[in-house]
TrEMBL record:
Family annotation (PANTHER family): SERINE/THREONINE-PROTEIN KINASE
GO MF, one example: ATP binding
Protein name: Uncharacterized protein
Organism: Diploscapter pachys
Domain FHA: 84-144
SMART domains: FHA (SM00240), S_TKc (SM00220)
Gene3D superfamilies given in the database record: 2.60.200.20, Transferase(Phosphotransferase) domain 1
Residue stretches making up the Protein kinase domain: 187-472
One Pfam family linked to the record: Pkinase
InterPro entries reported in the protein's UniProt record: FHA_dom (IPR000253), Kinase-like_dom_sf (IPR011009), Prot_kinase_dom (IPR000719), Protein_kinase_ATP_BS (IPR017441), Ser/Thr_kinase_AS (IPR008271), SMAD_FHA_dom_sf (IPR008984)
Amino acid sequence: MVSGDVAMRNSVNTTGSDNGSVYEMARLASAISPTQAIALSQLKESQLTLGEHTQNKRQPNNVFAKLVSMRSDVDNIELVKLEWTCGRDPTLDLDYTFKRLDSNDHLYRILSRKQFQIVHNFDTGVTYITDLSRNGTLVNKQRIGKDRTIVLSNRDSISIGYAKYDIFIFEQLNTPTYPKELTDKLIMTSVALGKGGYGRVIMAAMKSNFDKKVAVKILSHQTLTSSIRFSQTIVKPEDIENEVCIMRNINHPNCMRLYEVVQSIDRAFIVMELVSGGELFDRLTNAEHHGIGMGDDLTRFYAWQLLNALSYLHRNNITHRDIKPENILCVDRNVYTVIKLVDFGLAKSVEGDGRMRTKCGTPAYTAPEMLTSSKEMKMPYTEKVDVWSLGVVLFMIAVGYPPFSPDYGDGEMDEQIKTGKYIHFKFDLEILQANRRPTSLKLLTSPWMSGEPIEKAKKMVQTYENNNHFVY
């Protein structure tokens, strides 16, 4: 056990040869204190993981859709059952039996004993239709094919036997409307992946292949304010376009990919890569790692991927400016997995000397050069603010609690950051002075970024890249 301030070795040792020494703090750490536990839990308040699945609150006895009859001799039908089957044979267990159609005897004769089945998934909000007939069921004048299943969309027409025999319009209730540019390619579900001040994120599937899933971030021009721009002004469509143009140019396996942006009058729809492993923060706060960290190997495994992403961004003159565990997503639930930087809402593409002045980011991860004693004075800073934030993240991965917090009782958090004082531990990084702070590329090529965990990370990222080429 080690108590008090422990002088830590340089977590990005560019001169020493001890590749793993940065993570000795994970082994030297004493049990997390109640104050540190409070600080860790408060970092998570009001956060919703991008990987979290919110449960649909609808009950199965609700009407979820209607079949609006297009014929005077066929009833309008409210769909309540999750599986609904129709046909003309009264001896079968059908939910709706077609009576003899006086207006068209030929249409009645081509109806099958079982014509089609509609199945609704309340979890995803998606409705399917399966053709069970001998003479055919058509949706929007196109034959489904016997025993084949397709997705039903709001206002789809259903025909029997021939395109001219329209019988129903499928009308889904409480269905959000989406731009045609989206619905031409995607099946929009009601699966919520996350929400916040910016709007919400839902899952969608490619119409060309149901197995290919994407995430769609829906931003309201009226509500997209402080979460991205720290401004109370209404965000215009061109403002969102300026922000996502950075993501358009990012192509790296450790950064979230953007596929398309569709604008409407009041909303923007950002179609992105879908990952299902949740936030890195969730792993830090679970019972296994809470207050003790993840150990040397796993920390270095993650560190290489984060430096891999940062060095790519910095080479391309992009500064993220909001590196934190909540903005690091895991591809799957495995312990060793590919991780991705997300949320480029505060990212900045810089030219010239690469200096920026806007104060932004999340306070606990903010670099000291972004903090000034006077509101009027804005000191310039560079991409090395990301390196500082990464150091804070690595500290948390290694020991399981944040280095800075207003709950520690030894001064305001800004003052803790400005003095570089880590509670119980110190990184001897000389990172208070940005001009002496190592670059992400230098850290990536330093001796401590070698060994089995690093080789494992490289191999896993390369395999993921090879197996996940996605043509949108």
